[in-house]
Amino acid sequence: MPTSRRRFDLSAVVELLLGVPTVLSSLLVFFLAGRALVPQTPWLVPALWLLSGAVVFVPATDVVLAALAHRLRKPTAAERALLEPLLEEVCGAAGVEPGRYWLRVQNSREINAMAVGGHVVGVSTAAVQLPRRQLEAVLAHELGHHLAGHTRISLLRWWYELPARAVVRVVVLVATGVLVAGQAIGTRAAVLTSLLLVVALAVAAVVVSPWLLLVPVVAPLLALASRRAELHADRVAAELGYGPLLLEVLQRWVKEGHDDARARAPMRARMLASHPSCAQRISRLRRPPGRSPGA
Fold it and tell me: Which residues contact 69 (CB under 8 A, 6 or more apart)?
């Protein structure tokens, strides 16, 4: 019987820890809301918000987010006939039940695939055109994300960060409106007043969402954790026997120039990239099992 490769990956834990500052800012937002709405028990509102995180574990949430955020649709009959047997093969190799995962398709001319929440495995219409075994390797990579908990942690972090990020968005919108109004009036006093109001709004945003001060440090670390998660999913696919096939897909991407734009990008853009280069993924996949990165 196949042995499941399900294990929590360190990159998922790192991502969860890096989200703590933003989550605490969200908690502060709800605490302030609690003081305004129910001053006798201000803790009630943030407590209910923390409990609301259970929505992440509701399967229907994955389907809604897949449709709204990634524009994933149900596969056609022909796509289902192709994809379901491949997913069954991958799940059989991993020792997990294929029925717990839902296939979705994204209309796109680019070869792409994604894992959403805890149940959705999505592929692009271009990826569906890959040779069957290569497509199976792509599905194995996405299953690797699910098995390691990457997608579930990302969704949980996203949910708990929503209030803090919403405050920042509102502040930016209001500040933009204030600046536009000051410029529309045109007088020196109006422009100066609008600038002072924008500064005051920025200070208020930092007070309510102090995580903003950590963005220059946290953002690159989150990107690094994301790149490590991709390499981990590659390793899971290789352990399931799809290493050579995944190499074929990555080599195809290199020939199509996927790494060209990345090589020309400035250092900061490369630091904030969520995916490693194809060249790095190929190098890791070719490394003998158990060999350390510095060996």
Answer: 116
User: Over the stretch 268-289, which tens digit does the pLDDT of each residue have?
Assistant: 888 899 999 999 999 999 987 6
187, two tokens: 């007088």
- pLDDT digits 0-9 by tens, 138-183: 999 999 999 998 988 999 999 999 998 898 899 889 989 988 888 8
Q: Are 145 and 116 in contact (CB under 8 A)?
A: no
CA dist., res. 271 & res. 293, Å (int): 19
| Ranges of H-type helices in the chain | 10-18, 20-37, 44-51, 59-70, 77-94, 125-128, 132-148, 150-185, 188-208, 215-237, 243-255, 260-264, 267-271, 278-286
SS3 111: coil
Helix axes 278-286, 243-255, angle to 10 degrees: 150
Parallel/antiparallel/unpaired status of strands 72-73 and 113-116: unpaired
Tokens read off for 182? 């000051």
Dihedral sign from CA coordinates of 86, 92, 98, 100: negative
Overall fold of domain 10-153+217-286: Zincin-like (3.30.2010)
Give the amino acid at 207: V
For the record, the structure tokens of 48 come out as: 């209910």
